[in-house]
Amino acid sequence: MSESQPHPFVTIRVRPEQLELAELRLWELGASGLEERDETTLVRESASDEVVVIAAFPDEAGAQHALKEIREEYEAEIIYMPGEDWATEWRRGFGAQRIGKRLLLHPSWEAVQSTPRDVVLTIDPENAFGSGDHETTRLVLLMLDQQVAGGERVLDVGCGSGVLSIAALLLGAASAMAVDIDEDAVVVARRNAEINGVASHIEVSARPLSDLEGAYDIVLANIETRVLVHMPGQLQARIAPGGLLVVSGILRAERDELLAAYAPMRLEECLEEGEWCACLLRPVSP
Q1: Can you say whether the dihedral through the CA atoms of 95, 55, 258, 165 is positive or negative?
Q2: CATH number 3.40.50.150 given to 129-282
Q3: What DSSP character marks residue 194?
Q4: With contact defined as beta carbons under 8 Å apart, do 165 and 220 qualify?
Q5: What number does CATH give the domain 7-90?
Q6: Backbone angles phi, psi at 114, to 5 degrees
Q7: Which of 27, 40, 63, 158 has its CA 20 to 30 A from that of 245?
Q8: Nearest to 107 by CA among 122, 91, 86
Q9: Domain residue spans in the chain?
Q10: Highest-confidence segment of 130-144, 179-193, 194-208
Q11: Digit-coded pLDDT (tens) for 200-259
Q12: ∠239-133-91 over CA atoms, to 5°?
């Protein structure tokens, strides 16, 4: 193996109850991979029950930016690890998984054994959120497995890797519009659409939601409650008659706040996993 320059990693120390939210924040800041470790695995011995999260970033600038942002919320530092190609090291944490009755999700570097009834979804998250590994993503995928019957028009707001809109297309949706304010996510989502053979059925862009027109049968927004509570009007405006809205990235403790913001939409279903939930909402007929 050839020698390589030491690679910067942002490490944070969090209490177990903070872990999921902290990891979501690191993904949002551009992490290309995360690993959880016992604190004694790292630099010093400790009797603390805190969890250490090591976040890989594509380059020094990305790591420094993330450190500046994350240290306002958690104890954080940069450490340097030599000797491997850290641009691909993050792959160790991802593997194939079945979601719902139909979906079989896997990264491109891992072969899977599928049956004729499986809908095989190949996703490489790279530095975009949405590997299917996080509860917030899995919950939306479960809802899509239940709700997509065929022919739907889908809007995916904050698309990240494109996993949700691509899954909808593979499940039978007719078309998808995927938007994200992160240009890197747009690039990743387009690449994943090509990998899955659905590029001709999806439009991926960094257009703001306010610039979009038209109506969609399924609107998806896997973001965060603190952002979602300011978006009900914009999201509802894009729902076609008889259509539905799926919102995720919601901590269970925040569900009532979210539902209050989206009233009078009708809560049709709420799925939970760990500390997270996703809500399926429908407009109330006039």
Answers
A1: negative
A2: yes
A3: H
A4: yes
A5: 3.30.70.120
A6: -120, 160
A7: 27
A8: 122
A9: 7-90, 129-282
A10: 194-208
A11: 999 999 999 999 999 999 999 998 898 999 999 999 999 999 999 999 989 999 999 999
A12: 130
